[in-house]
Design brief:
A five-stranded mixed β-sheet has the order 3-2-1-4-5, with helices on one face. By secondary structure, it is of the alpha/beta class. It has a domain of 74 residues: Nucleotidyltransferase, domain 5 (2-Layer Sandwich). Helix 2 runs parallel beside helix 3. The radius of gyration is 35 Å and the shape is elongated. The protein has three helices and five strands; from the N terminus they run αβββαβαβ. The model has no long low-confidence stretch (mean pLDDT 84). 31% of the residues lie in helices and 14% in strands.
Length: 144
């Protein structure tokens, strides 16, 4: 901390002082940083997840019922290897699946060359009609 004391020359006293005293500015900035550190709440580095509760129940003995929906490269939808003629027929079958008390698993297997809109149409219809157990299978074909 130095202080500039004027020289004995009277002509130099008329010149403006060219250096700024930064010591008070640094002091103010340090006080503001300390206040900010104190007032910020401590961050918790935890992710809150709703994990299933272990009830020690044995796994189900019967295999789940699986409905396979294949979507061919040209957008043709196959329900358990049987072609579906239109969207209404697909939605009728999805309503039956969604209405069952124990819903079967719906496995959607799109072809690598199919347009996304065909896959999105099937998935949107299933979601809208209330199918809860749905997944995409056959992802290994998309790995290069």
């Amino acid at each position: 901390m130095s202080m500039s004391v004027g020289s004995g020359d009277p002509n130099k006293e008329l010149e403006p002082m060219m250096e700024i005293n930064t010591t008070p500015l640094i002091d103010v900035m340090l006080v503001l940083i300390i206040m900010m550190i104190i007032t910020i709440p401590p961050q918790t580095h935890a992710v809150k997840l709703n994990m299933p509760i272990n009830n020690n129940a044995p796994p189900p003995l019967k295999e789940p019922v699986v409905v396979k929906i294949d979507i061919d490269f040209d957008g043709t939808v196959l329900w358990d290897a049987v072609p579906v003629s239109d969207r209404k027929e697909l939605e009728d079958k999805l309503k039956i699946v969604a209405g069952q008390p124990e819903q079967p698993e719906v496995h959607v297997r799109p072809n690598k060359l199919v347009e996304y809109k065909s896959v999105a149409m099937v998935m949107a219809s299933a979601q809208r009609l209330g199918v809860t157990k749905m997944g995409i299978v056959g992802n290994e074909q998309f790995v290069k």
